[in-house]
Design goal:
By secondary structure, the chain is of the alpha+beta class. It has a single domain, classed as Roll (Ubiquitin-like (UB roll)), CATH 3.10.20. Strands 2-1-5-3-4 form a 5-stranded mixed β-sheet, with no helix packed on it. Strand 3 and strand 4 form a beta hairpin. The protein is elongated.
Length: 128
């Protein structure tokens, strides 16, 4: 060290956050009392994809492991098609789960409702 030079601190290696994200807060306990529909009985069949000639919407799916997926669906797809998409794209999710809206937190009922009829166009859906 020289007296004429200003002090320079040695560079330390940067440590970035490498963990997974978790949402703060919890859903209301009232909706968790309903039994979740088993994914295997509802998700029979393969995901057929999106027909670009029909109106489409994007859904953000928040998965149980904290990750998220954004998927395109036709407005005429059903809630059951969301389950088919999840089982096709993420076969590692084998546990039964409920589909819930982000705000207000409520369980999505009616597996055969279209996304438009269920009010799920451009929505955030939580798998719980």
């Amino acid at each position: 060290m020289r007296k004429e030079e200003p002090y320079t601190e040695a560079e330390r290696p940067k440590q970035y956050f490498t963990g997974t994200g978790r949402t703060l807060g919890a859903t209301s306990g009232a909706s968790t009392s309903a039994a979740p529909a088993p994914a295997s009985s509802i998700s029979a069949g393969e995901w057929t994809g999106v027909d670009d000639t029909k109106p489409t919407t994007s859904l953000q799916l928040r998965l149980p492991d904290g990750s998220r997926m954004v998927a395109r669906f036709n407005n005429s797809h059903t809630v059951q098609d969301i389950r088919r998409f999840v089982s096709t794209s993420r076969p590692d999710i084998t546990a039964a789960y409920q589909l819930m809206t982000a705000f207000p937190n409520k369980v999505i009922e009616g597996e055969h409702q279209t996304l438009e009829a269920a009010g799920l166009l451009n929505a955030v859906i939580i798998l719980k």
